[in-house]
Amino acid sequence: MTKSNSDKLIPVIQELQEFAFNQVGSMTILRVLGYGLLLLALFDIVETFVPPSFMNPVWEFQTFGAIVERIPVTLIGLALVFYGELQARAKWEFFTVRLLSWLSLLLAIVFIVLIPVGVSNTVRLSKQSYNQINNLSQQQITQAEQVEQRLSQAKPEQIESFLKNQGRSVQASNPQELKEKVLSEVSQAKERIKLQAQANQSTQRLNLLKNSVKWNLGALVTAALFFIFWKTTNWARSK
């Protein structure tokens, strides 16, 4: 190689060295950011599980949803940590990325297992919500029936006197008409209670189903992403 050619290559080599140095600096920044996001995600998970209330379907379902909704931070953190594979890593990182690679597989399995648990809790909460609303409406209907029974046995004059004592205006041409009017109002109130209970049950069921579908599908996607991380980080597990 002539001297002139050598002189021409020197700036090129310097540019490549500078580019490589900048690349190492960028990878370091991204990896530090990744480790930071993983720590923040860990803090979130610990906060979500405290205080624990296992075997409580409400707590389990809400905790499941909270984890799924916060998992993107963990995924981004892992992607940043794995960036650049083994290039320009400190010695302690070789063990760390190997551990995180296996942890990705473990988390993929955990989220797959959580899906049937989420479905089971959805069914349990649906039944529980239905029974609670039904029991409350039955209590209200029973109270209305008791009032209806007492009004049926009461004399029209007693009903008129009772309404006046309650400060309600009495608009009826005779006491019997007033009695029939009040009984009609009680009967309408019973129907409103039934309709309201049905509406509440429908709303609760729809909201529960929407959250269940969103969180269970989210868990499935999360499991797939963790598995892809594990599959594509064979370089981290090789000695």
3D architecture notes:
The protein has 239 residues and is mainly alpha-helical. The chain has one domain (3-237). Helix content is 87%, strand content 0%. The protein contains 6 helices and no strands. The protein has helices spanning 3-49, 57-82, 91-153, 156-165, 175-232, 234-237. Helix 2 packs antiparallel against helix 3 (91-153), helix 3 (91-153) runs antiparallel to helix 5 (175-232) and helix 4 packs across helix 5 (175-232). The protein is rod-shaped.
What would the keywords be for this entry?
239 residues; 6 helices; mainly alpha; rod-shaped
Low-confidence segments, given as residue ranges, are none
**Given the structure, what is the number of helices?**
6
- Helix content bin: over 70%
H/E order of the elements? HHHHHH
Count of structural domains: 1
Residue-averaged pLDDT: 84
The coarse silhouette is rod-shaped
What percent strand?
A: under 5%
The count of β-strands is: 0
Outline the biggest β-sheet: none
Summarize the structure.
By secondary structure, this protein is mainly alpha-helical. The protein contains six helices and no strands.
